[in-house]
Amino acid sequence: MTEVFNVYCDESCHLENDGQTAMVLGAVWCPLDKTREIAVRLREIKRKHGLPASFEVKWTKVSSSKQAFYLDLMDYFFDDNDLHFRALICRKKQNLTIMLFLARLMTIGITKCILIC
Asked: Which helix H or strand E contains 26, and what residues bound it?
């Protein structure tokens, strides 16, 4: 039987002239049938820390005042066997010809894509 997964991708420092030399492409995935359970648990963690359900989780928002929230979030992530993570880290993104490919995609209105290598 084929198992279906929800995959959530994001990038960091992917812009060619952002002053950063490194770039990260990351993905978190879970089985499709666990998506609702995980979403409910994430909202519960946000509520516990007085954050709205719509609060966007970003590492740039980590601060002393939200430390307990992010620690709870990490504990949940590492304790739940249905959540998985992978990242591709490129230390010198200027050496990637993929930047040209991404730039072309963005010119036609595509800002998110998954690359399979």
From this structure: strand 23-31
**Mean pLDDT across the chain, nearest whole number?**
82
Contact present, 21 and 91 (Cβ < 8 Å): yes
pTM of the model: 0.70
Q: Indicate the domain borders of the chain.
A: 5-107
Q: Is residue 80 within 8 Å of 38, Cβ to Cβ?
A: yes
Question: What one-character-per-residue DSSP string does 44-88 give?
Answer: HHHHHTT--TT----GGG--GGGHHHHHHHHHHHHH-TT-EEEEE
Integer-rounded Cα radius of gyration of the chain: 17
Residue 54 phi, psi (nearest 5) = -85, 0
Q: How many CB atoms sit inside 10 A of residue 32's CB?
A: 11
Q: How confident is the model at residue 111 (pLDDT cuts 50, 70, 90)?
A: very low
Question: Buried b / exposed e across 73-98, counting CB within 10 Å, b at 16+?
Answer: beeeeeeeeebeeeeeebeebeeeee
